[in-house]
Amino acid sequence: MEQERDIWRWYHNISECFYHIQITVKYRKLLLNKKVIEAIIDSLREFMERYAIEISHVGFDQNHAHILARFLPKYSGGQVVKTIKSITARAVFEQVPEIKKELWGGEFWTDGYYIATISGRGNKKVIEQYIQNQGRPKDVSQLRLFEL
To answer: Averaged over 87-105, what is the pLDDT?
Structure first.
């Protein structure tokens, strides 16, 4: 893989697209404590080698996580989110088994998710700062990133 700035070259593919992904804990339970976060981060470290999915930033609030990732267009956003949820949930249940008492049904993440594309030439820095500032009370007003 060859990278120049935000251009990603992988075999015969070139991509310059980043994805802002937000996933929420089942039932919006406040379960993202230090042990759970460590399990999630440890499981995300292997994504680049196994799936050609680069995860550059991860931010946590008490019941949801924000991820800045990029992957080749051969994957759909839904495929990537499903992979992230599956592997991180498995890691959480293996490393923090007592968390199962808080959840019924054997699922860690909700079925839904948020995903948005971000160009490397666009507002990637704003999203990076937003993700890095997750969970800080003074930045709560920043949660309204897009005005609808």
So the answer is: 94
